[in-house]
Amino acid sequence: MTQNKIRRVLGLLMVLAALTVYLRLAFSQSDLKAEDQSLLRVSDGRLMPFAEVMGDITAVPLVFVGELHDEPSHHWAQLEVIRALKEAGRKVAVGMEMFRRDQQNDLDLWTKGEMTLHRFRNLYLETWGAPWPLYADIFHYARSEGIPLLGLNVPREIVTQVARHGFSSLSEDQLKSLPPLSCDVDDVYKEFIRRALGVRHKSGLEFQHFCEAQLVWDTAMAWNLLKFLERNPDHTVVVLAGSGHSWKRAIPEQVRRRSDLAYRVILPEMPSLERDEVRLNDSDFLWLDLPLRKES
User: Fold this and answer.
1) 194 or 97: which carries more pLDDT confidence?
2) Is residue 41 in some structural domain?
């Protein structure tokens, strides 16, 4: 390895180390405790303590906990939900937008303790763009407790192709690599995408294709969740996905169309969804007062 390459590698390691320290400090300074947290029950506007909300969700097989990918407090909240369900005696699995379905064997090796941290971290970094420390505590908790991690996503190149050229551009071979799905984008779904993702600059065919890509994403993840629960009906799956995929009109709607399984949706309060704006067709609970690391 040349001296220049060595310097680049060392520089990258220093940046990653600094980022890890920064994120850890962000958590320690926020001093978050689950027992101090309140969630808004959207159906009646009641503020409920964390423990009471957890008592409600233990009865359902699917719990969606949305996130802004780069917000540490959102990942802290996700881990607290997973931990609460586990400590309540539920068999828990964690479904993740951050991994593909075809990576399931590697995820199983990690949770069984048969993959090194170095290899798993590289797998994550090759797949997902958000810094490793944001999800590290979730990954380590799943491994220590033997909680399955489920890869829900489809190859990024397929979603990118649909976003650029539309669902109809997929070849027969590409369609065979996907779960059975259609791409019936309607005006309701388009309006949801504009609101949830703040998409204002796209229109016409470009926006149609963008919505088709999101729907392919949502539908495939719903299908993968249902297949797991068919094989493991005694589990509760906590689904970690971006808030745009976790709103009720996204993955949960695709679950509803294919199953009568009960679910709950928990979204963090954020600029695109505030307590005065949330409706029952958005979410069941809104997690209030989670600190945001930056304006999103």
Assistant:
1) 97
2) yes
Number of CB atoms found within 10 A of residue 39's CB:
26
The number of helices, as runs of H, and strands, as runs of E, in the chain is 12, 8
Q: Give the residue among 99, 100, 118, 120 at the shortest CA–CA distance from 109.
A: 120
Contact 98, 135 (CB under 8 A): yes
- The pLDDT, as a whole number, for residue 4 is 58
Mean pLDDT in residue range 230-239 = 97
Q: Which of 54, 214, 232 is nearest to 150 (CA)?
A: 232
Q: What is the DSSP letter of 130?
A: S
Q: Is residue 70 part of a domain?
A: yes
> Which residues face 150 on adjacent strands?
95
Distance separating alpha carbons of residues 6 and 13, to the nearest angstrom = 11
pLDDT confidence of residue 161? 92
Name the residue range of residue 132's domain. Answer: 33-287
Q: How far apart are CA 75 and CA 290, in angstroms?
A: 10
pLDDT category of residue 291 using cuts at 50, 70 and 90: confident
How many domains is the chain partitioned into structurally?
2
Is-contact 221 97, C-beta < 8 A? yes
**CB-count exposure of residue 248 (10 Å: 0-12, 13-18, 19+):** buried
User: Are 42 and 280 spatial neighbours (Cβ–Cβ below 8 Å)?
Assistant: yes
| Distant-in-sequence, close-in-space partners of 171: CB < 8 Å, separation ≥ 6 | none
State whether 19 and 143 are in the same domain: no
Residues 23 and 57 in one domain: no
What spatial distance separates the first Cα and last Cα of the chain, rounded to whole Å?
Answer: 40
40 assigned to some structural domain: yes
Contact 237, 95 (CB under 8 A): yes
Assess whether 120 and 234 both reside in one domain: yes
